[in-house]
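Renewal narrative, Specific Aim 1. Our central claim is that a sequence can be written position by position from structural information alone. The example that follows is taken directly from our test logs and has not been curated for this report. It begins with the structure tokens describing the chain, in the order in which they were read.
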């Protein structure tokens, strides 16, 4: 008797599981397709953002190079100004 009840309950549970899966199949497939499309869009957005990050890194690198050039030119300009001042003072000493 217990064995018969166990078999009946097992068949009932399996039947409920199969009917639940079959009944929700269309909804699950539609949601799955929607999620696949969203996943594709997110991957595309991610690729675009990776390219944008790469471009920004390149721009930062170029900016750093320009800053280094400006610093170098500023130092050179200061050295030339000092040379001009030294030459002016030498010329005024020679005139006297």
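The sequence written for that structure reads:
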């Amino acid at each position: 008797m217990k064995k018969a009840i166990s078999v009946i309950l097992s068949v009932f549970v399996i039947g409920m599981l199969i009917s639940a899966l079959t009944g929700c199949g269309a909804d699950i497939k539609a949601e799955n397709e929607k999620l696949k499309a969203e996943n594709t869009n997110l991957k595309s957005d991610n690729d675009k953002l990776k390219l944008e990050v790469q471009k920004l890194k390149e721009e930062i690198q170029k900016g750093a190079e320009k800053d280094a050039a400006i610093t170098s030119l500023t130092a050179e300009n200061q050295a030339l100004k000092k040379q001009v001042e030294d030459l002016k003072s030498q010329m005024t000493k020679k005139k006297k």
